[in-house]
Design goal:
Length: 440
């Protein structure tokens, strides 16, 4: 008997008792290789002694001080560290407690920015189909996954959705990757012209799409075209790096690899590496100046923003990701993981695509490799694969609805950056076992 409200009332998950490096051990002593970092969270693995020591030390000093009254040393240190590595023009950090909160803060700041400038007609956002930006109503409204949106659609912010940059499914025969990127980026301009650019606040996108598409990176030049369109029409570019940021793709900020400058960027998951709940919304100096020179007050806030213990933990995490070399390790070991996946599954009859960057990899599962035909949704391949992998001692992140929110299956892999070659081999072996179980 439990009084916990679980994610699914018919699920009876084992009790996680301890973490050791890349593994989680349950109450029976069974060991699971954390091949997805939970949900791309545990970038440093479990039980990192320096991060846990920082938590203990900060708890001994002060655990909580409301930001309506105080700032804190950990928050100031962490903000300085993040801005030192942030994309060009990003100058301020607003701490929250997770990814959905970070996106909510971004949406509200973007709206208030235009209010401060007197552009009150800007009320809409544009995002992409098959995106995911969080589970609170604003974040869910900008997200483009039909299955998640449908029950709550009447409550959501007004958002238009254009095509994702999904080369495996969208690039036409004879079309170069660059031409494909130009074509799908052009959908943003077309939608702006349809709506009237003066009604639009921002375009919201994940640099590398995570949960809903399975580690899909953009083609070369795509985000450069997006930036040009945003600038031409005076709208903001919000990049959601909650899942793909903080070293996950092999650079601290995922957008670095596309040479794109956001106006606002959101981070979470890997920022705290699972040791404390934390996220952040980072904005440009120009956006901050509009607030500073206007009302001076960002009309937003949560009780636990800038939490000293969470910031102290994240400060050590970011130090390890940067000066400690763990982001560089994610790039190096991510290439090895990709090579192992290609060798094991590159010719698999039911693996249509292997994609991603760094320690962020996706495999798309198909019924017919030649035609890219997906399995029927009723077969729930992704759910069966998750269960089979878990039984084999592997935590991975399969999802359904890859193509349109209903059809398609993929598995997302996002292991800790500390993973070694032996553990990569273990991950591939256990995933192979799961695939043989589900697709004999």
């Amino acid at each position: 008997m439990t009084h916990v409200f679980p994610r699914h009332t018919r699920a009876h998950p084992p009790v996680a008792m301890r973490g050791e490096g890349a593994y989680i051990i349950d109450a029976t002593g069974k060991q699971y290789l954390d091949g997805s970092g939970g949900a791309a969270v545990s970038c440093l693995g479990h039980s990192d002694p320096e991060v846990t020591q920082a938590i203990k030390d900060q708890a001994d000093r002060i655990a909580f001080a409301h930001t309506g009254f105080f700032t804190s040393e950990p928050a100031e240190r962490l903000a300085d560290r993040l801005i030192a590595h942030a994309p060009e023009g990003i100058e301020r950090v607003y701490f929250v407690s997770g990814g959905s909160e970070a996106v909510e803060a971004a949406l509200k700041l973007a709206r208030q920015y235009f209010l401060e400038k007197g552009e009150t007609s800007r009320t809409r956002f544009i995002a992409r189909r098959q995106s995911y930006h969080g589970n609170t109503l604003g974040a869910l409204g900008t997200g483009g996954n039909l299955w998640r949106r449908e029950p709550f659609a009447p409550l959501m912010v007004e958002t238009s959705h254009i095509a994702p940059c999904f080369e495996y499914r969208g690039r036409e025969d004879g079309e170069s990757p660059e031409d494909y990127g130009l074509r799908v980026a052009g959908e943003l301009e077309a939608e702006l012209n349809r709506l009237g650019p003066e009604t639009v606040i921002a375009f919201v996108a994940e640099p590398v799409v995570g949960a809903t598409l399975g580690a899909v990176p953009p083609v070369p030049g795509y985000f450069r075209h997006i930036r040009e369109i945003c600038d031409r029409h005076g709208i903001l570019l919000i990049l959601d790096e909650v899942m793909c940021g903080m070293g996950r793709t092999g650079t601290l900020f995922a957008c670095e690899q596309d040479g794109v400058r956001p106006d606002i960027v959101t981070i979470a998951k890997g920022l705290g590496a699972g040791y404390q709940p934390i996220g952040a919304m980072l904005c440009s100096g120009a956006i901050y100046a509009a607030i500073e020179q206007g009302t001076g007050f960002f009309q937003h806030g949560h009780t636990y923003i800038g939490h000293p213990i969470a910031c102290a933990a994240a400060d050590v995490v970011v130090e390890k990701l940067t000066a400690g070399g763990m982001t560089a390790r994610a790039a190096k070991m991510g290439a090895r993981l990709d090579a192992a996946l290609q060798e094991a599954f590159g010719q698999h009859p039911h693996i249509g695509d292997i994609r991603g960057r760094g320690m962020f990899r996706g495999l798309e599962i198909v019924e017919d490799r030649a035609t890219k035909t997906p399995f029927a949704p009723e077969r729930a391949i992704n759910k069966a694969l998750k269960a089979a992998a878990f039984e084999a001692g592997l935590i991975c992140y399969p999802m359904g609805g890859t193509i349109d929110g209903r059809q398609g299956d993929h598995v997302l892999l996002a292991p800790p950056f500390i993973i070694d070659d032996t553990q990569i081999a273990e991950l591939v072996d256990k995933l192979s076992t799961a695939l043989r179980t589900v697709l004999p």
